[in-house]
Amino acid sequence: MIPTYLLIKNLHLMNTFAVYIVPGLVSAFYIFVMRTFFEQLPDGLVESAYIDGANDFRIYTQIILPVSLPVLATIALYVAVGEWNSWFDNYLYNSRNEKLAVLQYELQKMIQVVENTAAEGGEEGNARIISPLTIKSTLTILVTVPILLVYPFLQKYFVKGLTLGSMKD
């Protein structure tokens, strides 16, 4: 964690929106998954395109990229879930800039306030304090709903992408 923090600081990404995007652009795990997927593609796919006179850019955009939709959707889903749940990035890198706070960070602060209030003593005036467990359960549902809405659209690619890169003929 310390080398990552120093890298973010030296790249002058502290208190900027780019800190949410730049560190997640490249991941060794995702590169390995893509490489495994590309290795299992038949060589005849590219060779036939060369015979038909296609250049490298055309082969990539019209043959390789459409065939790679399952693995790209799988990686997109992993990245989306990972970034959606990354409240700690906000805490480390953007905690001084309230305008750049993400939903997860705000929800974490809300849980801390409720837990501190409950620990101090139970009631404020005539209103009863809601239990921390109730708040955590409600926020868990709130945080899960967007991912549940995205998953059905990526499901057909997600299952195919998980299995294609795992087996070799």
Structure description:
By secondary structure, the protein is mainly alpha-helical. It has one domain: MetI-like fold (Orthogonal Bundle), CATH 1.10.3720.10. It contains 8 helices and 2 strands, in the order H-H-H-H-H-H-H-E-E-H. Strands 1-2 form a two-stranded antiparallel sheet. Helix 3 runs antiparallel to helix 4, helix 5 packs antiparallel against helix 8 and helix 6 (87-93) crosses helix 7 (103-120). The two termini are 39 Å apart.
List its salient traits:
169 residues; mainly alpha; MetI-like fold; two-stranded antiparallel sheet; 69% helix
Write a compact overview of the structure shown:
It is built from 8 helices and 2 strands. The chain is mainly alpha-helical and 169 residues long.
Secondary-structure element sequence? HHHHHHHEEH
CATH superfamily, by name, is MetI-like
Number of helices: 8
Characterize the main sheet: 2 strands, antiparallel
**Percentage of helical residues?**
55-70%
Radius of gyration: 22 Å
Could you tell me the number of beta strands?
2
Second rung of CATH, namely the architecture? Orthogonal Bundle
**Uncertain residue ranges:** 165-169
What is the CATH level 1 assignment? Mainly Alpha
**Proportion of β residues?**
under 5%
- General shape: elongated
Q: What's the average pLDDT?
A: 80
Number of domains: 1
Q: Between the first and last Cα atoms, what is the distance in angstroms?
A: 39 Å
CATH fold node name: MetI-like fold
Based on secondary structure, the structural category is mainly alpha
| Biggest sheet, spatial arrangement of strands | 1-2
